Amino acid sequence: MKILVAEDDATSRLVLGATLRSLGHDVTAVEDGAAALEAWRRDEYGLVISDWLMPLLDGPGLCRHIRAEHRPHYTYVVLLTSLEGKGNYLSGIEAGADDFVTKPLDRDVLAARLSVAERIIGLHEALRVEATRDRLTGLLNRGAILDALQRELLRAAREGGPTATMLLDVDHFKHVNDTYGHLVGDIVLREIAQRLQLTLRPYDRVGRFGGEEFIVLITDGDADQSALIAERIRTAVAAEPVDVPGGESVSVTVSIGIAIGQSAADAADGLLAAADIALYRAKANGRDRVEV
Ligand code: GH3
Ligand code: MG
Ligand code: MG
Ligand code: MG
Ligand code: MG
C-alpha cells in the first residue's frame, strides 16, 4: 500500500517508516499535519497514519481536511495516540478517523490493523469501480464521465488551455438491432467501446452517455487536434466490420460532434449542447462524419 505518515517526533517517524517498509509498504513520511495535507493533495494515498499532537496541524485536524475535500478515492485514516480516555477517542471519530493505534507501537498489532485497512480500502475501491463503470461496455458510465468533464473544465479554468468534448452516436443503430437482434447489438456496442479505447491516449476519457451514444474528453484539445482524433475514431469504427457469433459481420459507422471549451465560463451543459448541435449536423450531412 501507498502510505502517508505524519509524525513530528523524528525517532518515532523513522521507526514507524521502517516498520511499515519492512511490512512491504511504500511510505512517505512527513513531520506535520500541514505537510501531510500538502502531500495528500499532490498524490494519491490509500492510507494516512497520523500522530495526534503535532505543531501546525494535528491529527484530527488533518483528518477533518481530508474528509472535507472530495476525492474519487477513499483515504483510510489511522490516528496514533498515547493519549488515553474516551473524550479523545470520540473527537478522533468525530474528525473522521477510521482507526486508532496506541503508542508505543506494536509491530504485530500494526500489521493486523493494516490488514483491516487493506480490506476496507479494497471494498471502497470495488464499490467505486462498480459505481462508475458501465456494465455493458466497461467504459465510464454517464455519471462518471460527466464528473470527469466537470473536473476537466475546472482544470482548464485553472491552467488555461482548451478542452474538447466529443459526442458520438452510432449511425442507424436501430437497424442493427432490428436486423441481427439486441444481443448482437450489444456485442457491436462493446466492440465500438473497445475501438474507442484503443484509439485514444491513456489520459483522454471515454464514457457511455447512454444507449448508443458515447462521450470522449480530449485534455488540452484544440479544434484541429480534436478533429484529427475524432477522424481516427471514425475510421477505426468504419474500417472493419464487427464479427459477431454465427459467422456474420456487421458494418457500423459513427457520427461525431465536437465542441471546444475555451474559457472558465464554458459550463459542462453548454459544451454538451454545442457538441450535440455539431452531432446533429454530422447526421444531417450524411452520417459517418465529424463536425466541429
Ligand atoms: P441515427 O443514425 O439517427 O442515430 O439512428 P439510430 O437508429 O442509431 O437512432 P435511434 O435513436 O432511432 O436508435 C437508437 C437505438 O439504439 C434504439 C435502441 O434500441 C438502441 N439501443 C440503445 N441502447 C442499447 C443497448 O444497450 N443495446 C442494444 N442492443 N441496443 C441499444
Ligand atoms: Mg509525538
Ligand atoms: Mg506529536
Ligand atoms: Mg442516439
Ligand atoms: Mg444512433
Structure in a nutshell:
The chain is α/β, with parallel strands linked by helices and 292 residues long. It has helices at 10-22, 33-42, 59-68, 86-95, 107-132, 142-159, 173-180, 182-199, 223-239, 268-284, and strands spanning 2-6, 26-30, 47-51, 76-81, 99-102, 163-170, 205-210, 213-219, 242-244, 248-250, 254-261, 290-291.
> What is the oligomeric state here?
single chain
How do the strands of the widest beta sheet line up side by side?
A: 2-1-3-4-5
Termini separation comes to: 44 Å
User: Main beta sheet, described?
Assistant: 5 strands, parallel
The number of helical runs is 10
SSE-based structural type: alpha/beta
| Bound heterogens, unique | 3'-deoxy-guanosine-5'-triphosphate, magnesium ion
Catalogue the unreliable spans. none
| Average pLDDT taken over every residue | 94
| Rg over C-alpha atoms, rounded to the nearest angstrom | 25 Å
H/E topology pattern: EHEHEHEHEHHEHHEEHEEEHE
Helix content: 40-55%
